[in-house]
Hints:
Two copies of one chain form a homodimer.
Chain A: H1 10-17, H2 21-28, H3 35-48, H4 54-60, E1 66-71, H5 77-92, E2 96-101, H6 106-118, E3 123-126, H7 135-142, E4 145-149, E5 159-163, H8 165-178, E6 183-188, H9 198-209, E7 213-218, H10 223-235, E8 240-243, H11 246-258, E9 268-270, E10 287-289, H12 292-308, E11 315-318, E12 321-323
Parallel strand pairs in A: 1-2, 1-3, 3-4, 4-5, 5-11, 6-7, 6-8, 8-9
Antiparallel strand pairs in A: 10-12
GO molecular function, one term (chains A, B): transcription cis-regulatory region binding
Organism (chains A, B): Streptosporangium becharense
InterPro entries (chains A, B): HTH_LacI, LacI/GalR-like_sensor, Lambda_DNA-bd_dom_sf, Peripla_BP_I
Amino acid sequence: xxxxxxxxxxxxxxxxxxxxxxxxxxxxxxxxxxxxxxxxxxxxxxxxxxxxxxxxxxxxxxxxxxxxxxxxxxxxxxxxxxxxxxxxxxxxxxxxxxxxxxxxxxxxxxxxxxxxxxxxxxxxxxxxxxxxxxxxxxxxxxxxxxxxxxxxxxxxxxxxxxxxxxxxxxxxxxxxxxxxxxxxxxxxxxxxxxxxxxxxxxxxxxxxxxxxxxxxxxxxxxxxxxxxxxxxxxxxxxxxxxxxxxxxxxxxxxxxxxxxxxxxxxxxxxxxxxxxxxxxxxxxxxxxxxxxxxxxxxxxxxxxxxxxxxxxxxxxxxxxxxxxxxxxx
Amino acid sequence: xxxxxxxxxxxxxxxxxxxxxxxxxxxxxxxxxxxxxxxxxxxxxxxxxxxxxxxxxxxxxxxxxxxxxxxxxxxxxxxxxxxxxxxxxxxxxxxxxxxxxxxxxxxxxxxxxxxxxxxxxxxxxxxxxxxxxxxxxxxxxxxxxxxxxxxxxxxxxxxxxxxxxxxxxxxxxxxxxxxxxxxxxxxxxxxxxxxxxxxxxxxxxxxxxxxxxxxxxxxxxxxxxxxxxxxxxxxxxxxxxxxxxxxxxxxxxxxxxxxxxxxxxxxxxxxxxxxxxxxxxxxxxxxxxxxxxxxxxxxxxxxxxxxxxxxxxxxxxxxxxxxxxxxxx
Lengths: 329, 329
């Protein structure tokens, strides 16, 4: 990994110019001081290497360099991976990610989106809890917004990376059916407050088409909290699970171990999103892979293009692949 | 989980008062409008339930309600858990966390800390990459700062939750020694740019005391990247590992599986920090547990007390416990 460069501080520029740090800061942003002072400060900053600082550059350009990254729920390990991946990719583009957690709450999501706009982020990347919220159309008028997962209703986004959940759900349910399962527990983090999320609509339709008997059960996305739900569902007699997040499937692993049930001989588990840890479990978790690296690249390319004002492709539909690893008996 | 309340928007308050949304926003912050208007807006906001919004309250109080959370490296899964835990605990205190990733780079850490201050966060929680940076003393003069992990040199922090790394390292090395290991690979994310991190100083001293032959090797904290390093170290003949993060130990699991080596009969692995996934592996990863929930509670209590101006205990030393699970043969 590259070693960090030593950068000049604003104090060193202040010392070199005989100005206060505050005056240097203003000068770098072209504010409140004379043209001559601005010129003098910029020259000193360049000599000392202060201009290499992306924040200074961002200030000079009238941008903050900050991109808001509003996550649906960071309890989910895959969303954590996505957030970290996006932040790293933004860093490679000299941007900074401000990561926020909507905690699965649509009202919180709206409040945080507004707050980020007021904090003057240059753009927003959102994995929406409530893609149908009326806020999005309003927000897109003042800020480039890129959405990941679902489209934002009626909003003119700068780009979107949409999951083909229909195919993902079909892959998962057909795999379970092929292995002889007819009765499934479907564990999803979706709450009553956002009942019409596309993935959940598909699962009902597909279960009908495939003549599967499903119980749809709400489960939290953190493995520890999902374990509690999985215990109850196992005790109710379910032995085949389709989990709408690998994080939830980890809860099924933990609860099965507690109950002395073996995967895949006693219990079958299918995940959704293919978190990096899923291949390390014994047996590995069979899951639906969305190519997290591809999502990260596409979303960051779109948001950077939107901030820079260069036109790019606006919509990518992410196709899933089944990763079979042995957790479905 | 509680269902979200429907909150009135600033637009609804604007409609009710006949003012523009901008004027309402100013009025709620007590700015630029007459006392009479401020009173009228506050009354309308209260009637419509807008005051229940923590952001509106924060604005009215002259605070943003935002707490910066500057993480050393979010590639590390445990730091991801810590960040999510802190964000959730702040939420329970009606605060919002802005999560940033210093990506292990001291220069980036400084730039982001300054940027957060300029974004007017009410306080900062930091897990420092470079606890000796001169910036911290300066920053603490303008902002309450709580540090997690190591003390900030010469800085008047609002609080600190410091790990007793000396005991943690001793627990780990003594456990490996008791099992008969004399030659160890120590995988650490510490880079040459921050050579004097206390945990690394201890490991050298303790290895000397216990007459262990150690190779200290830098490894990235993401499991995928750590796997590459682990392959090399296995190929060089090492069979016992002390990893300074469970995330790195996951890389040793992956590389061992690739090489057809079994844990713990062929390879012994010890982690550090006890990530929630460590107990789900086969065999479970033996690790050093820092009580992440206790750290989260303490740090959030300190930062909220500092913002609210109520005095509290300023320093907590976090004691580790060994979690033995079977990965050390």
